[in-house]
Amino acid sequence: MSKHSTEADVAFIKALAELLNQNDLTELSVKRDYGIDDSLEVRVVKQATVVAAPVAMPAPVALPAPTTVAAAAPAAPVLSEDPAQHPGAVTSPMVGTAYLSAEPGASPFVTIGAIVTEGQTVLIIEAMKTMNHIPAPRAGTVKRILIADGNPVEYGAPLMIIE
């Protein structure tokens, strides 16, 4: 802590807090040196508050009873499960922009139903102007592609399912 507490230091700390809010940051740390053995270290942290929103459920609707019995249709696969939890999920190792082909207009690295080998490039993620080839973590068949070409992705986001 600084040996002298001045109004300038208080104004500096207030400016850091405003900077934190204006730029949607969660933490900011700064050290000011005033001279030998005289400095000011400031760490401003904003804690995020997570609030669960209530989910509105629609009221049940009474359907008229069918007059004839129809054959039961096979159950559709449930797609509401989280793809990131799927055992065959390929997740993003970084934040960036995902590309399904090497260049615009070129054929994609893989398509749904394609058989891939372990280590084969399945897409590219551009991060900081660097093209990062993302390899298949295992051999298998591409079952789902969960992103569109040119879309941004976050770290850990599911990209595709390989079974």
Automatic annotation (TrEMBL):
Pathway: Lipid metabolism; fatty acid biosynthesis. NCBIfam families: BCCP. GO terms for biological process: fatty acid biosynthetic process. Residues 87-163 form the Lipoyl-binding domain. This is Biotin carboxyl carrier protein of acetyl-CoA carboxylase. SUPFAM superfamilies: Single hybrid motif. This protein is a component of the acetyl coenzyme A carboxylase complex; first, biotin carboxylase catalyzes the carboxylation of the carrier protein and then the transcarboxylase transfers the carboxyl group to form malonyl-CoA. The lineage of its organism: Bacteria, Pseudomonadati, Pseudomonadota, Alphaproteobacteria, Rhodobacterales. Keywords: Biotin, Fatty acid biosynthesis, Fatty acid metabolism, Lipid biosynthesis, Lipid metabolism. GO terms for cellular component: acetyl-CoA carboxylase complex. It comes from Rhodobacter ferrooxidans. GO terms for molecular function: acetyl-CoA carboxylase activity.
